[in-house]
Amino acid sequence: MSEPASANTASGKLVIRNIGLMLSGDLDRPILDADAIVAANGRIEAIGKEKDLDQSGAKLVIDAKGCTLAPGLIDSHVHPVFGDWTPRQSQLGWIESFLNGGVTTMVSAGEVHLPGRPRDVVGVKALAITAQRAFAAFRPGGVKVLAGAPVLEQGMVEEDFAELAKAGVTLLGEVGLGSVKTGEEAGRMVQWARKYGIQSTIHTGGPSVPGSSYIDKDVVLAADADIIGHINGGHTALPLEQIECLCAQCGRAIEIVHNGNELAGLHALRTARQLKQLHRVILGTDSPAGSGVQPLGILRMVALLSSLGDLPAEIAFCLATGNTARLRALDCGLLEPGRAADFVLMDRAQHSSGKDLLDAVRKGDLPGIGMVIIDGAVRIGRSRNTPPAERIPETLSHGT
Predict the structure, then answer these.
(1) Integer Cα distance of 318 and 240 in angstroms
(2) d(C-alpha 336, C-alpha 333), whole Å
(3) Backbone phi, then psi, for 334, in 5-degree steps?
(4) Could you read off the pLDDT of 253-285 as tens digits, one per residue?
């Protein structure tokens, strides 16, 4: 169900206790020595041991039953259009389905799948402002969708970016999906966007849709966008040596996506790790796309990078939460007082060979989700899409 954004923030105090494992989203401290968390009016208020926290006046108390609590997952690369519908796959309810995969925030890389998408400058700006306004006021399933990401088209001038920023647009769609193809031209527009506080993403690799282009390392380096979008290709990846070059020579965010080349994604991860640059790695799905909609795409990326990339599971979760939050300046993604109370509660899936949740993910299994909370409000209980979890949190109507 979709609701106005104003209806999504919980009022009063929320207490979650009996947490078996708390993942912070922070690479420097991925596991917290805590078993309870308190939120008030949709914001984290305190984290620590249950016996030390003030639980008085709680409107809602949740017994985690020993489950793991982590920040809500962030999908750094989606292509929404309007509402909870994607014309790319003629599918309704795809965003709410991602909620059942633990995703609480999505970031648009361009509303490019709109039939008849305008390519003139006036139309490009109008579509971006409309998408930004629509998703700011309307959340499918409660998910926060940061949308309104115009694709660069020839003829855009600096005043267009100033106008977009004044209207509330904070994102650029994938550079390379429009008529702007060269690194020099893209770089000039990216600088204009950055000047007005608009963050940019560049397409990387082979064409994904008709009209898009092959974007190699030289174009990426010349454009200098803030996010190296799907460095593992969307779908076709650059040669591995070019991926290494981008990781080493460009200080921008390294985005690895589900709908890309898995070998290239693992290579990008290993390269970033060797360079001691894991803080630059973020995760997305790059969906909806020709390969469909992946409600469990972010969880699958976490399991892939942990199991085949030899990355501790608690670190892999940071790539899908805190890293993205910091690189995209979001108020969620980390368990810190003052941030949004966006949480996913999960446990080892039933019959997994892993001895606990982290071990199961290291073995390639997806966790079972028992509850997702956005802005302090419970959005779903047991997920309909993940394998069933061994333990499920219990919601109490009143605190004690």
Answers:
(1) 24
(2) 9
(3) -135, 140
(4) 999 999 999 999 999 999 999 999 999 999 999
